């Protein structure tokens, strides 16, 4: 989300997270950060393949992802936890239904166009495309919308991602998302509520 602090402005011109500071170099946007780190540290080839066509498949998914999976999956968390937390009012169930319908359409395209009958998005090995996808798709799970339950192909893909990353690391990385409903019990500063409530509501329009 946005941050108006002076420190945030020094790390990211956009004043948003995530942001990376590597010496004097700063970078914003999660996809750009992932690609930068994969290149800098010479990661195993399967994460962002050197083969130009395989790399293009990763890029293709990342481009599609933002307007589809990312446009829908995180909204489940805003509707069920974050907006009620900051506004003090639950949203109508119709709003969640609308988002879930949009997400269902995206998941159908994800399975049919990208996953198909492959183990991972671009083939037999995990890539950055799978990492970016799974992080978004765990957000509905964290608020009680198990999108994997009735989708065996998607469920098996998730299991393979868990195994490839390592189950312990996988659940450690998603710990905050899976426990997001615990935020309902915390006290929010009234001034912060006043600032963020309109921003969160605008995200759902």
UniProtKB/TrEMBL annotation:
Signal sequence range: none
According to its UniProt record, which reaction does this protein catalyse?
Answer: RX + glutathione = an S-substituted glutathione + a halide anion + H(+)
Cellular component, GO annotation = cytoplasm
Annotated Gene Ontology MF terms? glutathione transferase activity
Instruction: Answer whether the UniProt record assigns the keyword Cytoplasm to this protein.
Output: yes
Which keywords does this chain's UniProt record carry?
Answer: Cytoplasm, Transferase
Write down the superkingdom of origin. Answer: Eukaryota
- List the PROSITE patterns hit by this protein, alphabetically: GST_CTER, GST_NTER
Domain GST N-terminal: residue ranges: 1-45
**Chain ranges of the GST C-terminal domain:** 51-192
Mainly resides where? Answer: cytoplasm
Tell whether Cytoplasm is among the UniProt keywords. Answer: yes
Query: What GO biological process term is on the record, naming one?
Result: glutathione metabolic process
Q: What class of enzyme is it?
A: transferase
State the InterPro entries in the record: Glutathione-S-Trfase_C-like, Glutathione-S-Trfase_C_sf, Glutathione_S-Trfase, Glutathione_S-Trfase_N, GST_C, GST_C_Theta, GST_Theta, Thioredoxin-like_sf
Localisation: Cytoplasm
**Pfam families linked to this entry:** GST_C
Q: What is this enzyme's EC? A: 2.5.1.18
The family annotation for this protein states: Belongs to the GST superfamily. Theta family.
Quaternary organization? Homodimer.
Q: What is this protein called?
A: glutathione transferase
Q: Which source organism does the UniProt entry give?
A: Cardinalis cardinalis
What taxonomic lineage is listed for the species of origin?
Eukaryota, Metazoa, Chordata, Craniata, Vertebrata
């Amino acid at each position: 989300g946005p941050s108006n602090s002076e420190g945030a402005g020094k790390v990211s011109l956009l004043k948003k997270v995530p942001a990376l500071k590597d010496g004097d170099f700063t970078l914003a946007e999660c996809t750009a950060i992932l690609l930068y780190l994969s290149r800098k540290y010479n990661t195993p080839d399967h994460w962002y393949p050197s083969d130009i066509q395989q790399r293009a498949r990763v890029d293709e998914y990342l481009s599609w992802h933002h307007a589809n999976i990312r446009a829908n999956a995180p909204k489940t968390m805003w509707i069920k936890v974050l907006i009620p937390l900051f506004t003090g009012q639950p949203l109508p169930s119709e709003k969640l239904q609308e988002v879930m319908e949009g997400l269902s359409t995206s998941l159908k395209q994800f399975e049919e166009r990208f996953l198909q009958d492959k183990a991972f998005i671009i083939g037999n090995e995990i890539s950055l495309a799978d990492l970016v996808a799974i992080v978004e798709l765990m957000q509905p799970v964290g608020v009680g919308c198990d999108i994997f339950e009735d989708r065996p192909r998607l469920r098996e893909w998730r299991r393979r991602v868990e195994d490839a990353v390592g189950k312990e690391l996988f659940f450690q990385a998603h710990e905050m998302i899976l426990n997001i409903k615990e935020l309902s019990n915390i006290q929010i500063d009234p001034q912060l509520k006043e600032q963020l409530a309109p921003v969160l509501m605008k995200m759902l329009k």
